[in-house]
């Protein structure tokens, strides 16, 4: 299959935006933009933008390297330098890329960080990752500790705790590194742009309630979340992209068309699935093909919520800028406890009239993998909808066994078919 296969206008726009973003980062030193590394879940894009910094997101670099078949070499380099086989492969890919000269996925060199902004939203690896980068680059770290939603609630004291840290830790660190004063009006302006884009993104994700679904909310979904999960939340470019995407999806809806795959429009929709867990990036297109060749469309996924659970109603709010950022961090999928994750998936199974629920368990991502088998059992018990389980990895090609995954998927689709036939008789 060609890697540059069929692309819709929004996908083209997205590609240009991400390419432009890497060029901008490469020139950050020349144009006087301090460089801040930060993670996707809990990223404070609008605040970073208000301070005129260039955000670098190590997970995006790693997944882009995976898609461009560069991750195996970077992982090998990191393992040679002593990082264990069990470590999250995003981390090893990032460290290996840095050891190889920090040349980013588009061939541009990514500058070293002036600040590591660690917004801690549920994954312990985030802390270890930035400890390694601090050791390597010797730059300051500002840590925003976001309390885990252990009982599924965001309380007032949690909100106050995060807002207080924004005021006393994060904003002073950004003031120091940029030499600028905090400008709340500029932050609010950006938050208003975020909310506009978030409205359109949610509309796009919820379009999958239709039959046929005009989108694939996992494989196609990762393209849709790209701008809002990276550097384009709180920007005019971000708003423009989601408007374009929405118009495109509206067109497919009007024409009663399914999603567009790399091989062109998808054929008949036979299975509607909800998927839990990140995708594999090293064989992304091959993985996706295993679904659309069988007529399986993903109507909702949890991975498209790691950078924000907008479909549960949250929007960034210019009327209360810091509290809104705190709420955002607290509500990211990675910060939800297991019962909250199960409840969200159960809702998806119901709202999107799904036939099945599939877990892609990631070998090196402990944060996502813990408890996934329990989730499958619990969801089957609650809904009677059959669960499936496959295993792969994020960016380590050694753990993508195409034949094995294909076999499992085929048996799983067969099982859904038999269940349907049994229900009719
Ligand atoms: S959530 Fe998973 S993939 Fe992301 S940093 Fe944590 S362990 Fe790695």
3D structure, described in words:
- The protein is of the alpha/beta class.
- Helix content is 51%, strand content 11%.
- The protein contains 16 helices and ten strands.
- The chain has helices at 9-26, 45-50, 58-67, 71-80, 89-99, 124-137, 156-178, 184-206, 219-229, 236-254, 284-292, 321-331, 338-351, 366-369, 372-383, 402-424, and strands at 35-38, 54-56, 115-120, 141-145, 260-261, 264-265, 271-276, 296-301, 356-362, 387-392.
- It has a four-stranded parallel β-sheet with strand order 2-1-3-4, sandwiched between helices. Strands 8-7-9-10 form a four-stranded parallel β-sheet, with helices on both faces. A two-stranded antiparallel ribbon has the order 5-6.
- Helix 4 (71-80) packs across helix 5 (89-99) and helix 8 (184-206) packs parallel to helix 10 (236-254).
- The longest helix is centred in the middle third of the chain and has 23 residues, at 156-178.
- It is globular and about 70 Å long.
- The model has no long low-confidence stretch (mean pLDDT 94).
- Bound molecules: iron/sulfur cluster.
- Iron/sulfur cluster binds at residues 88, 90, 123, 125-126, 334, 365-368, 394.
